[in-house]
Design a protein that fits this description.
The chain is built from 19 helices and 23 strands. The chain has about 550 residues and is an alpha/beta fold. A hairpin with a 2-residue loop joins strand 22 (about 530-535) and strand 23.
């Protein structure tokens, strides 16, 4: 073939290529720092989105040669990540808390009561005053008592959960309505007394005496609350939350709202281990879809460290003769493990103390001998003896909340003593054995902002930058590990690593755009309100 003929063929091929129709997509995003969290394509130039999914990840020139878009978004140097996932939260509880008094960061009992008075003036007709967030360690460690509540609110029942949800502060009216008396004993709980009389503080299962008589919210109130809750989540970059421990009626309501498209945030739901919930799971099997998934059961082993309800191998350093308590006896947990395994579901057990973790690891190992990929989780895995840390793996995952470390560091040594405090919040160690480390917040125990967890995991400091050198830095995470913990590792813990947690072709178009790059900026700047936009299923659900 001569030169003229060859040139003519090249020219004709170019014309044919130019004339071929270019496929349409909904959106092209480019000109920013894109973190895909995909090791095979870590920093692409551009992405294309169509019908709620990512259809292209790569070079901008190649993208434009293949696709034309209805809309293009120039990031102008902003940073883009997979949508942030919270692997352990209480989304419904948080949403309901928006309609209750918030007692977080109160530095005295008097400040708590002042806030409650302001709340009561705003909602004077509510039959109960409900709230959450008090933390006695902020005012010296002394548990509150009912006297201040009784004086301010003698005729309306008051019931206020501690920040960790494992203790509650009540007035006399609430305890009277619940029929509580000083001689009562509660398995898995404690009714605290002062000089032989009711103090006004209930620990763990004792709280149910009051919870059981509080009027329930209607579905309409819950819908309103969840709509407010998801708006707040989108504003901080969350696209997916694991909601830990839900009753059947609320599971059904969430699924209904998700199916209807009004609940846009993706929910990985964990059922309560009740008879009604098990019957539903037996009859309906796992519910698995991109917006709402139900394939796991949440079980409680022990309480919390702050209220000395976590079950320890040895006595509390600041309460000799007391090792905490189990909320569910081990035989019952073992039976639940067999039921959950036989239904092909995931078991996720709250375990804080080293004794609770030891026993749950034993039960899991026994139940999972013949299961190839169960991904059962221990929620919190907060205080774990070094010999037990080595027992975590891809079959038994530690699900941790980094802000717990920086919230608890002020008093953790008081509870555990100098020899054991290093066994707690050992995130790097747990990661080295498990291979993945899903990160959450446990909100509303902590703030909903996932970037606060990112900061706590890496800096191991509070928001004032204390301690200056970080707390137990041998267990801090790198920025890359923290990002994986709130994206692809969180997705793995939900069996969703092939559809969520990465910027990858075929994955759901859930993304977050930040005004600053958290992988390079000074860590303290991560705490600033830097979320520019949040997208779920290819739709912007928040834009600054």
């Amino acid at each position: 073939m001569n030169l003229i003929s060859r040139s003519l063929l090249v020219f004709l091929a170019g014309i044919i290529s130019f004339c071929q129709p270019v496929e349409k997509v909904d959106l092209i995003i480019f000109n920013g720092k894109i973190y895909s969290v995909d090791e095979n394509n870590p920093n692409p130039e551009a992405i294309g989105i169509h019908d709620g999914k990512i259809v292209f990840v790569g070079k901008l020139a190649e993208l434009r040669s293949k696709y034309s878009a209805k809309e293009e978004l120039d990031l102008q140097g902003k940073a883009l990540y997979p949508g942030f996932m919270d692997a352990h939260s209480h989304f419904l509880g948080y949403s309901q808390s928006l309609l209750r008094v918030d007692l977080r960061a109160c530095n005295s009992i008097e400040e708590c009561i002042d806030r409650i008075k302001t709340y009561r003036n705003k909602y004077p007709d509510l039959p109960w005053i409900l709230g959450r967030g008090w933390d006695q360690t902020l005012w010296g460690g002394q548990m509150p008592d009912k006297s201040g509540l009784d004086e301010a609110f003698p005729d309306v029942p008051v019931f206020l959960g501690r920040v960790d949800g494992h203790a509650a502060w009540a007035n006399s009216k609430a305890m009277e309505l619940a029929g509580i008396d000083p001689e009562q004993e509660v398995e898995g709980g404690e009714i605290m007394l002062m000089d032989g009389e009711l103090q006004g503080v209930l620990i763990d299962n004792a709280m149910n005496l009051v919870y059981d008589i509080i009027p329930e919210n209607t579905d309409e109130v819950l819908k309103q609350a969840m709509d407010e809750g998801q708006k707040n989540c989108f504003e901080v970059g969350l696209t997916n939350v694991a909601d830990c421990g839900l009753e059947k009626k609320n599971l059904l309501l969430m699924k209904e709202l998700s199916d209807a498209g009004s609940l846009k945030i993706r929910v990985y739901a964990m059922s309560n281990p009740g008879a009604e919930e098990f019957e539903f799971l037996r009859s309906n099997g796992p519910v698995v879809n991109p917006g709402f998934t139900l394939r796991s059961v949440k079980v409680y082993a022990d309480g919390a460290l702050g209220s000395r309800g976590a079950c320890l191998k040895e006595d509390y350093y600041d309460r000799q003769g007391w090792k905490g308590l189990l909320l569910t006896d081990l035989d019952s947990i073992s039976r639940l493990a067999g039921m959950i395994r036989d239904l092909g579901l995931q078991m996720n057990t709250h375990a804080i103390g080293d004794s609770a973790n030891f026993n749950i690891l034993n039960i899991y190992e026994e139940a999972l001998q013949d299961e190839p990929d169960p991904r059962w989780r221990i929620e919190h895995a907060q205080v774990v003896s070094p010999e037990d840390q080595k027992r975590f793996s891809l079959k038994i995952l530690p699900s941790v909340q980094p802000t717990h470390a920086t919230s608890d560091m002020r008093w953790a040594e008081d509870r555990l003593g100098p020899d054991r405090v290093g066994h707690g919040y050992a995130y790097k160690n747990l990661l080295s054995y498990a291979g993945v480390l899903p990160l959450g917040s446990d909100f509303p125990v902590e703030d909903i902002n996932p970037l606060y967890g990112f900061y706590a995991a890496v800096a191991r400091q509070d928001h004032q930058g204390q301690p200056e050198s970080g707390w137990q830095m041998e267990n801090s995470l790198t920025r890359e590990e923290a990002l994986k913990g709130m994206t692809t590792w969180a997705a793995f813990s939900q069996f969703e690593e092939n559809e969520k947690g990465m910027i990858k072709e075929g994955y759901l178009a859930d993304i977050v755009i930040l005004e600053k790059d958290i992988m390079t900026i000074p860590l303290k700047e991560v705490l600033e309100p830097i979320v520019y936009a949040t997208m779920v299923n290819g739709e912007f659900v928040y834009r600054k």
